[in-house]
Write a structure and sequence with these properties.
Radius of gyration: 25 Å
CATH superfamily of the largest domain: Tetrapyrrole methylase, N-terminal domain
CATH topology of the largest domain: Cobalt-precorrin-4 Transmethylase, domain 1
CATH class of the largest domain: Alpha Beta
Order of helices and strands: EHEHEHEHEHEHEHEEHEHHHH
Largest sheet: 5 strands, parallel
CATH architecture of the largest domain: 3-Layer(aba) Sandwich
Shape: elongated
Helix content: 40-55%
Number of helices: 12
Strand content: 15-25%
Structural class: alpha/beta
Number of strands: 10
């Protein structure tokens, strides 16, 4: 019978945020796979946990992942932890989870600290719908594509960023979203010097340029405002004839009658007025 992979959330700053269940599992499993065994060593020593550890990180995730799967198939119970937070979130743990699923190995997640959710709840931004982007890609082409997608995102946006890249990222966001877009900067979450700054992208750049950013950041941004989307949509209508507008809906598979109704709704007109315009055109 194969073992179980336990995804164990660890504190993102305050050691008191670890759960009793995680502490029990870390003591009971046969092996702990840690992102950095030195960093995790401080946590394990603090809670008097002496379970053997092994390293599992982005530089060995494929080779070490197969090794861990072999151990699980042989009956070894393994706990996976990161330096901080929940495994598999912006973390190579997602690769190991996929490998386990492919090999029919049981995986269970022990919930706990998570920087994304913690920042979102503190941000003052809408929490009903949000898009988690993690760290922007290092590759320029990939990063530009993500920024292009973010430009039209209507949901709240959550990003992670390191202090030495904060100003560069804020300036990229300003170019993409504008300096007046609302943003909340969450720094050193759950730690002694936790700081939550509710501001705009432009003001955040000015503040960061005058101080040396320190600590890990979570950035929570407002999505694209509905009124801005509506204004852009109406501006597009102004350059399109009624006939072309109807034709655009027909190209989507609508009947002429359905297309006329859609145009009337979009332009705030009556269907009769749309019909009359079509005749005149």
């Amino acid at each position: 019978m194969s073992g179980t992979l336990y995804l164990c959330a660890t504190p993102i700053g305050n050691l008191e945020d670890i759960t009793l269940r995680v502490l029990r599992i870390l003591k009971e499993v046969d092996l702990i796979a840690a992102e950095d065994t030195r960093t995790s060593g401080h946590l394990l020593r603090h809670f008097d946990i002496h379970t053997p550890t092994t390293s599992y990180h982005k530089f060995n995730e494929h080779e070490k992942g197969r090794e861990l799967v072999d151990k699980l198939l042989a009956g070894t119970n393994i706990a996976l932890i990161t330096d901080a937070g929940t495994p598999a979130i912006s973390d190579p743990g997602e690769t190991l989870v996929r490998l386990c699923i492919e090999n029919h190995i049981q995986v269970t997640s022990l919930p706990g600290a998570n920087a994304c959710i913690t920042a979102l709840t503190l941000s003052g931004r809408s929490t009903r719908r949000f898009s988690f982007e993690g760290f922007l890609p290092a590759d320029k082409k990939d990063r530009d594509e993500i920024l292009r997608q973010i430009k039209t995102e209507r949901r709240t946006i959550v990003l992670y960023e390191a202090p030495h890249r904060l100003v560069k990222t804020l300036k990229l966001l300003a170019e993409t979203l504008g300096e007046t877009r609302g943003i909340t900067l969450c720094r050193e979450l759950t730690k002694k010097f936790e700081t939550i700054t509710v501001t705009t992208i432009g003001e955040a750049i000015a503040q960061a340029d005058n101080t040396e950013p320190r600590g890990e950041y979570v950035l929570v941004l407002d999505g694209k405002p509905d009124e801005e989307i509506e204004a852009e949509r109406r501006a597009e209508f102004e350059t399109m004839s009624i006939a072309d507008h109807v034709a655009s809906f027909e190209a989507q598979g609508m009947t002429r009658k359905e297309a006329m109704k859609a145009v009337a709704v979009a332009r705030g007109m009556s269907r009769r007025d749309v019909y009359q315009q079509l005749l005149s055109e």
